[in-house]
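Render this sequence as a predicted structure.
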Amino acid sequence: MKIYLASPFFNDNEIANIHRAVEILKAKGHEVFVPMEHDVENRESLTNAEWAEEIFKIDKGGIDDCDAVVLLYGGMYSDSGTAWECGYAYASGKKVIVCCYNIEQTNLMIVNGCHAFLNGIDELSYYDFDKMPVVRNAGEQK
């Protein structure tokens, strides 16, 4: 299965979370598209706006080409780009599997827009991507 991994990658903790999720997903035999691993050729010759447009196209194409999206979600407030990826995937009919590592307070739009809501990244090890069961969040939604 082709999986798009949606997550912020702006600090060491976020990058470590991505590496852990990729490790689990690849061990389960999935092909994983990781946005932080993709950049634009000749980046130095582009303006910021040109570079940003190309990155947008690459990432959107990754979502278009995937079978499912795994979203690494930090709780109530998340990265705006990651939230966009989640919404676009949902609107495109992709199944979104949310791995939340702050389950105390979650956003109702993320919770109700996902197919499965897992309590942490390690739960990816146990999730059945063949059957794709629906898993709901029991925490408070705002």
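Summary. The chain has four helices and seven strands. The first strand starts at residue 2 and ends at 6.
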